[in-house]
């Protein structure tokens, strides 16, 4: 099979596309023909050796995919060859074939597009886990989404709408992305690089602040967020894109019952797969009934994984980037 491997930590140019050994199936595993795999910041961190759940060298990157089951192990139940699935493969998703545990493989209706399914698997699961299960946001509450034009951000708008949230604010450091964010019907757009953004959030919220903030940035934005986080509000941290250190004033939390929550959907999948399964079933239902339609910036051939990583690192995409095996992308082009 063809796929991508990483044999040395470093830049995107170290992603090597070529022939890899076909994987074999254990008793509790599923062999999947990958039809689409999403590109995530966690993949970039893994390539650099910075991902907290990363694998040792050499490895095939990628956390999630959508595809067709080709073979199942002897102990696998309720999944059969030919099923369309979302999966979180142990072997990495940047390959034409992948192996996943049956506990992290989920059958999807055949009408769901593979690229939509792949784009939604990790980020849709992450957002649903943060908003519904951790922050437990309710319809009357206000939500601020940082890095709102990224894969997680664009999914967060739709999951929030599905949960009945109508007061949503977005942030981005790239002005050219603001029109796209505005198209989601936000009440305000701020630049998280500007230390005065809490003033804007407080103004548009009539001095109430945001009840829930989703923050993948870390660094100075954590302390700044506390200035516009409502009393009893929940600040959910799920990354540290800024690579800055964070300083927290205790009085900014306990005096008004504010909470900071750490969120890792990967850690949840590894340690509480049954709860992760509930989250993914929510995502599948939203995909099936149209409440969740992922914003896909572009689909690239698997052989151009390095280009996909560079685009994501350079903040050159609005929404998700999806990798498709070269032969299937070529086939789609011929049909269209």
In short:
By secondary structure, the chain is α/β, with parallel strands linked by helices.
Describe it for me?
This protein has 336 residues and is an alpha/beta fold. It contains eleven helices and 15 strands. The chain has helices at residues 41-48, 114-134, 151-162, 178-182, 197-204, 220-225, 251-254, 265-271, 273-289, 305-313, 326-335; strands spanning 2-5, 16-19, 29-39, 65-72, 84-87, 97-101, 105-107, 142-145, 167-171, 188-190, 210-215, 229-237, 259-262, 296-301, 320-324. Strands 3, 4, 5, 6, 7, 14 and 15 form a seven-stranded mixed sheet that branches. Strands 10-9-8-11-12-13 form a six-stranded parallel sheet, with helices on both faces. Helix 2 packs across helix 3 (151-162). It is globular, with a radius of gyration of 20 Å.
What descriptors fit this protein?
about 325 residues, alpha/beta, Rossmann fold, six-stranded parallel beta sheet, 11 helices, about 25% strand, globular
Question: Which residue ranges are poorly predicted, with pLDDT under 50 across at least 5 consecutive positions?
Answer: none
State which percent range the strand residues make up: 15-25%
Mean of the pLDDT scores?
A: 94
* Rounded radius of gyration (Å): 20 Å
Q: Provide a count of the helices.
A: 11
Structural class: alpha/beta
Q: Do you know the CATH architecture of the largest domain?
A: Alpha-Beta Complex
Shape type: globular
CATH-derived topology of the largest domain:
Quinone Oxidoreductase, Chain A, domain 1
Distance between the termini: 26 Å
Number of domains: 2
Q: State the fourth-level CATH superfamily of the largest domain.
A: Medium-chain alcohol dehydrogenases, catalytic domain
Q: Any idea of the CATH class of the largest domain? A: Alpha Beta
Tell me about the largest β-sheet: 7 strands, mixed
What letter string, H or E per element, gives the SSE order?
EEEHEEEEHEHEHEHEHEHEHHEHEH
Write down how many β-strands occur, each being a DSSP E stretch of 2 or more residues: 15
The helicity comes to 25-40%
